[in-house]
Input
Amino acid sequence: MVKELNPTKYTLASVKNGTEFPDEGWTLDSPSQIGCGGLVRAIYQKKQLEVKDSSYGVFRFADWLPVHKMLEGSSAPVTYKSEGLAKCLGLDDLYITFSGYWPEKGANMRTCSFKETEAFTVGGRLNGNRDQVLVVASAGNTARAFARVCSDNNIPLLLCVPEDNIDALWFDSPINDNVKLVVTRSGSDYFDAIHLSNLACKLDGFIAEGGAKNVARRDGMGTTTLSAVTEIGRIPDYYFQAVGSGTGAIAAWEANLRLIEDGRFGTNKMKLMVSQNAPFLPIHDAWKANSRAMLPLDDKLARKQVEEIDAKVLSNRKPPYAVSGGLYDAMIDAGGDVLVATNEEALEAGRVFKEVEGNDIHPASAVAVATLINAVKTGLVKKDDCIMLNITGGGEERFKSDKEITYLKPSYVFDINPSQDLVKEVMDKLFK
Output
């Protein structure tokens, strides 16, 4: 079921040189700069955001989403002024943007993650590509969101996920056959899943979702910031979020720039306080070294570090950090820092959040909470600072408690570096 929505009017522009060009349907790169490593950005005709009513779900922000249609079943992020955590930390102006399951607050994401904002907007951008298979690589939450949305809307989908992460692929109702899951064997990580997805995308009939390069993914994630700012009435001073790729923080920065241009919410840029789960700290290490390029990281060491962290979704070894318009540029422009939380700190932060706010949160969200707690302790943020805390997933324990949960099973387990011929053979069987 598709609800009517007028296509959003927008063009695309190269972040690197500002050149504008039309979206040809699934444009991921500037036509003049393919392979040059710069992101493209949506330039919306409507400069002042008009928020639709809640029945539109995430598409209530459609003025600033590159979509042709509205898929039913979405839920927008919800922002509220914190009382419990704010009192616990002695903060006067803390706002929590919650994506997940919390019916009392109007949050009804069936996969309990803000990755639904990406999946619905990417699906809303698809226009006439139903004969092609969308390919998504994921460390877990993204795969769950895309599986649910594509299953419900009959969009052919191939998911590539590390085998060790497939426990994240739980659902409250079975996934339809148009969605197929393949995995890289146990001991692999997100980078290996990305490599597998790249091999699949070389085949006829398969299209890359695009990750951070897809304006629909970034602007869908940016709805967290649109939710916060339209609720608060101003652009916050600080933005806290745990990151694996950093795409959510890039999206927040881009939304911030649009909100400045809107003219009704102030002119400041939120300091991007992004966090990682120790000991896997590639973004942190590059930032602290004042390096635009990611630092060398041994494959075996990286996989070992990923095994050790609780927040598996934060395990991207090759994030869009150095690319023009990527995380490095966002943080240089907006200001901020890369913070760190251990498993133990995150576990305690998750416990505190549940106790004082009243809902469970995902490990990645707990990493963000832990770094906010530390930032208050060290004086990095002040009592009267306006702070947006992006809780990117939560309510899973509540959601599962009264549901019969099923899991999506892999159709094939690949070795870490499979041949192109084998990938073709498997895909030919899966998508006859």
